[in-house]
Amino acid sequence: MKFKADNVVAGRYRIESFHLEGGMQEVYRCFDLALGRVVALKTPREGIVDKRFSRGAQMGARVVHPNVAATLDYVEEGSNRCLVEEFIEGVDLGRRLASDFIFLDPSLTAWVVHNIAKGLQAAHRVGICHRDLKPSNIMTSADGRMDVVKLTDFGIAKLAEKELEAEIEKFELDENTLTSSSTLLGAVPYLAPECWNDWASAEQPADIWAFGAITCHLLLGKPPFGVGKGAIMKMAQAEVAGKVELPPPEWFGQHLETAKLEQELWALVHGCLQIDPKLRPTADEVVQRCEALCYSATPRKVGVITTYPHTYTSGRKANAGFISVDGGDPVFFHLSEFFSIGVKPQVGQRVSFGTAAGKPRERCSPVLLLQSP
Questions:
Q1: How many domains does the chain have?
Q2: Last residue of a domain, which of 86, 109, 133?
Q3: What is the C-alpha separation between 280 and 273, in angstroms, rounded?
Q4: Per-residue model confidence as pLDDT tens digits over 227-261
Q5: 0.85 exceeded by the pTM?
Q6: Mean pLDDT, residues 318-344
Q7: Where in the sequence is the domain holding 27, given as residue range(s)?
Q8: What is the pLDDT of residue 359?
Q9: The domain spanning residue 66 has which CATH number?
Q10: Is residue 27's pLDDT more than 60?
Q11: Is 276 part of the annotated catalytic residue set?
């Protein structure tokens, strides 16, 4: 680590703690002594020095939108290069998918991708391409709905371009190099075909491909082509065929109330995953399609199923049960609102859910099965 707690950078940013490490950067939680606020300080990892970092900071500062982490400052002090960004309480979408969600139900997917699309639109409107869009570069709040969704690392993505381009060239000579590059390995599932053919020519349509791959990941619970070398092979096969053919998630069609939304989201995925970049929608068009989606944006809670199936006083069992949050009053849910992959409700399962009015108790809708803690 370059900095320790209580170090002060540029006479202004006091290091509070090391926050996390990415493929290209170290991130610290800092306190801005001048303005009295918590900020994120990002600096290239040891051994990574490149003028692209300052250029990336300048690019990031041009994107001003609620769905994009704000670039606040750029500091050069001695050999240190530091990008100061808005600090977002929460975790990145990649970690949420790895530790919390098995997949996302249609309404939650629509909510998340609508926010991603708006952030991407803001970048594209000022002529900026992210080029490294993936779940780990999307920050979310830690609540059940992910109320806050923000794209990050437009500046770091510029720094990553050189490494990604070099790693792609190495991979073409020796496929075994893939496992040695965490930057390339993490990007593979979301890289558009043109990125492999000519990295320098990849432009904004590559971000749209990544958006489609992320949307697919949310619905399937895994990237559309998998990960690693297998993903590259499947993408190459699709490129030869001239089209992407993906079967819809196996849970599609089980919920009448979201059937239309499921179809629209899957059509959006296929629209973005066009082999020919010219056939992909623009960010403006993606936002328009997201705005036309009819989905529930109700806040979500995380709770545990405490009763299933419910037994009436007559002894009859119903395809219904109750969910409790921190021992509070249980909330009613019906099997028709339960989203899972081949698993029925069971006592003790952790779920994310919204609530709707009901008598004598509120009713959960939808109920999304989460990973076990």
A1: 3
A2: 86
A3: 7
A4: 877 777 788 788 888 899 999 999 999 999 999 99
A5: yes
A6: 92
A7: 8-86
A8: 78
A9: 3.30.200.20
A10: yes
A11: no
In a domain, 1, yes or no: no
**Domain co-membership, 258 together with 316:** no
The residue from 100, 132, 153, 207 that is catalytic is 132
Closest CA to 354 of 147, 207, 68: 147
For residue range 55-112, what is the model confidence (pLDDT) as tens digits? Answer: 778 888 899 999 999 999 999 888 888 999 999 999 999 999 999 999 999 999 999 9
